[in-house]
Each structure stands twice: as C-alpha cells, then as structure tokens.
Amino acid sequence: MIKQNTFSSRDELDLAFAKQIAQQLCDAISLKGYASIAFSGGSTPKGLFTHLSNMTLDWSKVTITLVDDRWVDTDSQDSNDRLLRENLLKNNAVKARFFSLKQAEQLTTDYLNTLNKQAQQFMPLDVVILGMGEDGHTASIFPCSEQVEQGLDATNAPCLMKTVPTTAPYERVTFNFSALIKAAHLYLHVVGDAKQQVLQTALANDNAIEMPIRAFLHHQDKTCEIFWAE
Ligand code: 6PG
User: Fold this and answer.
1) Whose CA is closest to atom 3 on ligand 1?
2) What's the per-residue H, E or C state across 151-211?
3) pTM here?
4) Are strands 97-99 and 62-66 parallel, antiparallel or unpaired?
5) Distance from residue 198's CA to the centre of ligand 1 (Å)
C-alpha cells in the first residue's frame, strides 16, 4: 500500500519530511525510551539531513543507521557512512548514536554475524527511509545481483547481508526486505521527473525481482509513504 505526498519544491519536501520524522522519533522515545532510524544514502537525502539535524528532540536516545552502505573506506566520497556523518550527525543531531555498517576492513561472514547480533539491540526500526534507483533497486537490493531473491525473502532471519550488484560499483552491506518492512514507519524519498517515471513503472505491477522497490510498494499490510518533488 502507498500514500503519496507531492511538494512544489525539494526544500519544502525536506522541511515537512524532517518535521514528520522528528515527531515520530519523539513519539517512539516517549513510548519506549529510545528510537531508531535507518536512512538511505545517495544524493537525494542531503537536504533532509540538514533540516533534520536542526530538529529539537532528545537525540541522545536515537540510534541512527543506514539501510545500506558501499564497502568502501568511510572517508571515501562514495561512503554513505561519510555522507551521514557530514550532513546529519551535526547541530542538534550530533548527540545521536550512529551505528555504522562499515566497522571492519573485511566483509566476512563472521563480520556480518557480529553486525546482525549488534543490530538486534535497536530492531525493529521505528523509521526507514528508502531511496530508489532508476533500475528499481532500493537499499542495496539490486535486480541485477545474484542475491536479489535472498534480499527479498520475507522469511530471511538475519537482517543484514552482503550484496554484489553488477550495474553499480562496490560490494554492499544492506538491510534486507524482511528487516526493513518491519519498520513502524516506512518511507520512499524520491525527487525529479525521471524517478517519478520509474515510480509509475514500479506501481504498474508487483514483480519485485524485476524491481525490488515493488516489494515495499505493493505490500498488503504495510503502508509505504512516498515523498516526491520535481
Ligand atoms: C545507495 C542508496 C541507494 C539510493 C538509490 C538512489 O547506497 O546508493 O542507499 O539505494 O537510495 O540508489 O540514489 P540517489 O538518491 O543518488 O538517486
């Protein structure tokens, strides 16, 4: 299921989105004493990060993580870890706890087992913000990768896995569908006409192997709230 929100500008979207997310984090903290949120990387969310970093809430009770990251040094320009540290973990949000997906040099099975155990302390996530590539990938669940079925497997117990896309660089660590769909609040953040066309294609049928974002958009029980501006 989806709910669509359209904005006349990207900055209007980013501010409204930041306010809504901040309120949901506050609600989770009031209810449980803590909150957790996972962001996508890429170019889309930078403006959202800046607005969110200035929101007033008890950031010390918030765990921030990523839906996925590229397996690169965390000082690489292509690191989502770096993107978050430079654009979100500042201002008021500097007090948040950041759970990096890149905590080792080697992406080994043992590392993933340890990361999965550590992630349990803040799962299920309160808020998940998905992005979408023009191939319909989301997080690092890519239609081109050999791991696409595993990534979309609703019964897949471990929440974090390795994927190797063939149409994008780097090995990746990504939360899988079974972990992300359990979020209390699920969002898709896309901007521009090209992504709107991809979104319409994704909404046209539910073949998720072809376009993994469809697994979230066409889910029977979970609402994926879309934030879009030109
Ligand atoms: C990543 C993201 C990925 C991203 C989409 C859209 O690591 O690249 O997590 O899923 O959200 O590729 O990226 P843009 O925002 O750059 O279009």
Assistant:
1) 139
2) HHCCCCCCCEEEECCCCCCCCEEEECHHHHCCCCEEEEEEECHHHHHHHHHHHHCCCCCCC
3) 0.98
4) parallel
5) 14
Ligand 1 atom nearest to CA at 138: 10
Q: Check pLDDT > 90 for residue 229.
A: yes
Query: Could you say which of 2.30.42.10, 3.30.70.1670, 3.40.50.1360, 3.30.1300.10 is the CATH number of the domain covering 2-211?
Result: 3.40.50.1360
Mean pLDDT confidence for 55-78: 98
Q: Could you read off the pLDDT of 108-161 as tens digits, one per residue? A: 999 999 999 999 999 999 999 999 999 999 999 999 999 999 999 999 789 999
What residue spans define the domains of the chain? 2-211
What b/e readout covers 14-38, taking b as 16+ CB neighbours within 10 angstroms?
bbbbbebbbebbbebbeeeebbbbb
CB 183 within 8 A of CB 223: no
**40 CA distance to ligand 1 centroid (A)?**
6
Give residue 148's identity as a one-letter amino acid code: V
CA of 67 to the centre of ligand 1 (A): 10
Q: Ligand 1 within 6 A of 138 CB? A: yes
Bond prior to 124 in cis (omega within 30° of 0): yes
| Integer Cα distance of 158 and 32 in angstroms | 23
**Position 87 confidence tier, pLDDT thresholds 50, 70, 90:** very high
